[in-house]
Amino acid sequence: MDVAGATTWDEFAARSIARMDTQEENIGLDWSMFASQAACGSHTDIDTYTSSVLTYINTTIDSVTSEKQITTYPNQKPWMNKEVRILLKARNTAFRSDDVQAYSKSRANLKRGIKKAKYCYKLKVEEHFSNSDPRRMWQGIQAISDYKPSNSTPMVTDVSFLNELNDFYARFNRDSKETATKTTHSADHQPLKLTSSDVHTALSRINAHKAAGPDGIPGRVLRACAEQLAGVFTDIFNLSLTQATVPTCFKSTSIVPVPKTLLPMCLNDYRPVALTPIIMKCFERLVLAHLKDCLPPTLDPHQFAYRRNRSTEDAVCTVLHSALTHLDSNNTYVRMLFVDFSSAFNTVIPSKLTTKLGDLDINTSLCNWIMDFLTNRPQHVRSGHTCSSTITLNIGVPQGCVLSPFLYSLYTHDCKPVHGSNSIIKFADDTTVIGLISDNDETAYREEVQHLATWCAENNLLLNTSKTKELIVDFRKKKGSTHDPIHINGMVVERVSSFKFLGTTITEDLSWTTNTSSLVKKAHQRLFFLRTLKKNQLSSAIVVNFYRCAIESILTSCITVWYGNCTVADRKALQRVVKTAQRITGTPLPAIEDIQRKRCVRRARSILKDSSHPDHGLFNLLPSGRRFRSLRTRTSRSRNSFFPTAVSLLNSAL
Fold this sequence. Notes:
By secondary structure, the protein is of the alpha+beta class. The chain is built from 25 helices and 18 strands. Strands 5, 6, 8, 9 and 10 form a 5-stranded mixed β-sheet that branches. A 5-stranded mixed β-sheet has the order 11-12-7-13-16, with helices on both faces. A two-stranded antiparallel sheet has the order 1-4. The longest helix is centred in the N-terminal third of the chain and has 31 residues, at 100-130. It comes from Cyprinus carpio carpio. This is Reverse transcriptase domain-containing protein. InterPro entries: AlkB_hom8_N, DNA/RNA_pol_sf, RT_dom.
């Protein structure tokens, strides 16, 4: 049995807005009084200003929020209501009275009551579907299918253990000897200015279901009161950009440790999930939009993360096309090095990052703001209501922040191949070196690996050689001598026969049986939930929607990458899952092959529209201007891959 305090947020939002409106109209609340209290001459202490505003908002929340206790039981069914409880009590009373006739009647009434309650709950779930409320619909589906998360976070109340975790997460901060120094402002570089409408839009788009950060202000409050809060936060944001200083309360981070395994054995078995103030996330989104506008779309074309019209599918397709095209030539093979970094985000040096941003002509004032954002960041570890002591960090880009992934991609934008026969494909911190070897000459590839190791050392990125793997694709009948292993920092890199690259399993013979088998196995497990929903007589629309989201999405994951070269047996195995789902739903479902064709065409057209895409040049029009030039291939393996197939489908669609 759990007893929890629940806040009636809908009631709060209305009352909070009404309270603020009343204060502004009748009492004459002036948000500028907080700035006046923080002013010292011509200078305004932004920490004092921001803290006083957040304190006032929290005080307002406390004054209008109502709480109530709700008792829940682990085995409580979602359709259980007051009527069913009354009938259940009547049945138990009849059972204890030894009245056979009364017991039989009460049991029949209970059975009818449960059936009616289940039907009402089913209608409620369907109503969420028709009202376009997917969150509540999926919650209802999970309740009906008795789905339970496989990994729950245990509460840790030992403060000393939380302190150890905090020290472990901040271990790179102790080893760093870098000092952060802001650059002198240039007269040509004026601070970024945000408008009240921009801030209002950012506040109104907040996801109300996200957890609150260390400041304790829920996203629902900020979104509901966007009109009242836009003005004061616009002033705070602009003051922060002008002073190139981020308020300390905005930078504070609360780390929630989540076990990576069912039985964590060491500190590294806890994944740090960072919670930062939601209002700071809004601020970061506005800065991020400005940063993206300042940079050319062609910057670091082989970084496929955090870019529009890029995905893991694009990254894998690019890797395979490079390999397959090279393997079409005689006496060639390919070596793929899948690089693993140790806590890549946590080892970024702010001073090096801002130097690189300056080289990209980013505003000096904004570079200083980013420097301040990444330094002097308070961090503590929290489990339930227990918190560790606070540590101040001066290194790394905080995970969980909106800006961090993009800043990391800018930090690594100068990690480029030095030899034309090699390529470096990046998806966030997943880095892959592709070496195209001809005539057994691996000199360029080995130099590339050593250059990467040197670059990582210069940029404080720690290569994890034990987790770095190499896969060699060699179809030559006479391979000659065995392939010598690669060494990084004196350690041998393990060679593997298969590797799961961005969710897709690539094997050394470029077959896809291993990949499709894992997808089919996972999809089969989801069929149980599909049967449960059908058993509960949910509408066909909801059942099919569940299939599309939970089963078809698995079967067609990166389908344009591998389906063309699947064996007949693999394709039949995939289609059998679809046929089984079709029998369960009683509704025709699209075939896997049809989905693959549609996605190939859609993906190709999106690449055609994006001239900055690294594979845009593979689609060349013939002199007629109507059809595309077919890609030259020698083997069926290359011919059935994504890009030749996409060109063929585009031409056939004309």
